[in-house]
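Researcher: Next sequence.
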Amino acid sequence: MEQIYTYGNYLKNKFGCKVYKVGINISGFTCPNIDGTVAKGGCTFCENDSFSASTGEVQELKGFHLNLDSTENPHLDKQLKQLEIQFKAISARQKREYGAEKFLVYFQSFTNTYAPFETLKALYDKALSFENVVGLSIGTRSDSITEETLDYLAKLNKTSEIWIEFGIQSIYDETLIRINRGHDAQNVKTWIQKSKKAGLNVCGHLIFGLPGEDSKMMIETAKEAYAWGIDSVKYHPLYVVKRTALANEFKSGKFTPISEQEYLDVLTHTIGLKPEHVSVQRVTAGLNEDSLLAPAWCRDKNIQVKNINAALKPLGLKY
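Model: Next structure:
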């Protein structure tokens, strides 16, 4: 069996040791699809509370939000402190439990380029100053990044490993409208290609099982994402959680979640089409909590991965 080319493989090959992503949640960051700039309420599958802070330091700043038009940030010092506290705690655990030796600081929750440039610069520079940090991975939306920020990330990329992660989700505008995404597919394509031209590494997030999409559409989205030049990919099944617009659609019978078999069929097909150099960061997602409404098969990730490997076996692959 040949192992799929994973992001872990990529990092190990490049740095010669175990490199782990340290997921960070900085208060004050939000999303233009939540704050009303491009839409209201967020994507239909997004439970906004799921991104809420889990530490007291973050809760101190509850109700404080930045955007691209913010002219000042009175809480930057607190944000920098949050960054340091979270990094130290998480990286120490990763060293202890997994033998991690070097780290990428992963700005994960919400839209991490959706703030004034000086705030972003301060946070990115601080993250890169930590011991054994080799780079950054920045989760964002394609409608929430400026040329100034992109240019700065390109500058950082000359001496550090800089990744930018875009939520592609689907290449079909009718789907993006239905899930209240707030931008079209062309916008994502444009900024992925700009990021690549600037020399950055790009990870694309794909969701299989979006409302109204069949297997052919999901596969076409993956093919287009590969063609846009992404360097890495995260595959997600769409699952339904409480307190979302999608939950209302599900309860009223207007949305049927993807079956595990269809997800396996689409996933294995798209992995088979994937260019060899594109690494895989995620093959599934789920939530083992009471907030998960459906599908039930998304509850246990260990079982999911076992079934994914069984589906990949006829292709001579394993995850």
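Model: The CA atoms of residues 113 and 146 lie 8 Å apart. The chain is about 40% helix and 20% strand.
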